[in-house]
Fold:
Amino acid sequence: MPTSDHYTAAELARLCVAKGIRHAVISPGSRSAPLVIAFNQQEGMQCLQVIDERSAAFFAMGMAQQLHAPVALICTSGSAVLNYGPAIAEAYYQRIPLLVITADRPEEWVDQGEGQAIRQQGVLALHMKKSVQLPRLVNDELARWHGGRLINEAIDATLLPVPGPVHVNVPFAEPLYNTTEESGTSARSIAQVMTESFILPEHARWLIHQLSTKRKVLILAGQGEWSKEMHAQLRNLAMMPQVAVLTEATSNLADPAFVQCIDRVLEAIPLDPDSELVPEVLVTFGGAVVSKRVKTLLRNWKAAQHWHIDAGQRHYDTYQSLTHDIAVSPEIFFAQVAPQVKPAESGYHAMWDHLDGMTTALHHQFLQAAPFCDLTAFERILQRIPAGSDIHLANSTPARYAQLFERGEGMRYFSNRGTSGIDGCTSTAAGAAYVSERPTTLITGDTAFLYDSNAFWNRHLSEHLRVIVIDNGGGNIFRYIEGPDKDPALLHWFDAPHGRDPLALVKSYGITAYEATDRASLRDALDALYSPHDGPAVLVLRTSTELSPKVLRDYFKALRPQK
Structure:
């Protein structure tokens, strides 16, 4: 079978397939021609074209997020590479495996007035697990051995010791478009043998003793996807009198034994460092936590012991109280420790359970009387999304509103909370929907939606994708958080009213779109949105710019204990 006559391009494509990579997202360009030829001709590789590099990178990240396997991302030289930056940073902090392959001009032409020749080697290194520069000249066996070894190292580094993005920069000299038959001198594939660390027995015994004898143990789960076995182990711990487990939507740990709506419950808790709820042992794991309230509370409380469980990140001290850095995966930790923990005499779980029940009742009471706004719209949307769906939450308002509601049956929640930027939310959901084939709903705001409008400049949009745009006229979060809302003269610099119509944008792409402006039209539009379609569909929901922040403030006030 023909392939590129550039050895490094051909070996990259061949070794990617040999080591399990099956998808490549490619943006057009000339210098990347050897890579395009090699990957497009490689048996076992599916190539997808996404023209905008920034969108392409988030699309590939969404794919890798669902596949739990690396996706190759390919672009030409120059500023095209820099457009990968936002998605690379997000993938780095979310630990999503990407193999970022960038074509380059020969190094000799850098800073010499040659077009598209920038300082490209290592340009994304700060948010890469590894950056590799392949040799331009591979004229002898030693150079070919070196190139093959570097490619093996790069692909393996996308998964071990923890997943993340890896950069392979490949300089090509012209001619670029020539092909050759596959040679018999290919580099060998070096297999990576998977291993897993565990807690040494004497340390495990001490951890188990602490959890069994302390009267107040608080477990906080960050963003992630976890096994059914670990979920069961956490549930067993949460049933013990001394243990309370706090989760968020993006923790993907929905269970009646857990406190699932942190921001609701915390509104009823004062910051008092002498509170009965201050834990003796705080156990944290997983990725980013959305709730600013819980961060503020835990930093104020200063637990006597704070254990953070993570196989890759050392001294991760979000709450400024870290005492024990546990370098194993959460799955291993709970499998090794949880079954041996014994119940202690305590009322700690009961206190959290009481607060959860009280604020849940106040939550439903408030919503019954609340006017149509972002909060009540979220309630209706989350009730209507089909069971078993994946829900993607854009930054920043949707990711926060979702924390206030119970989880639907079989739902999985995703959000770009690694860096928490608004760029790429739609593209990420589109990439995820393409490979998961699960019903996928993105809930986004108008600013984030418009920012990533090139997500629809893509021929690979899934019929399973639904997008709900809450159009409240700008970055409405800035009308709620303290600071920007205090000076009307400066507010427009923060909430950035855009004067654009998301509905018109959607229709310009030929995508089915619906509109809603009140409770009745929202009900009808949601029914239409979730009817069968041949492609993606979008709902634009218009809400009041001024009313929604006011209702949200009143909502949190209603959750606080009355003096």
User: Anything to note?
Assistant: The domain at 370-559 is CATH 3.40.50.970 (Rossmann fold). The chain has 20 helices and 19 strands.
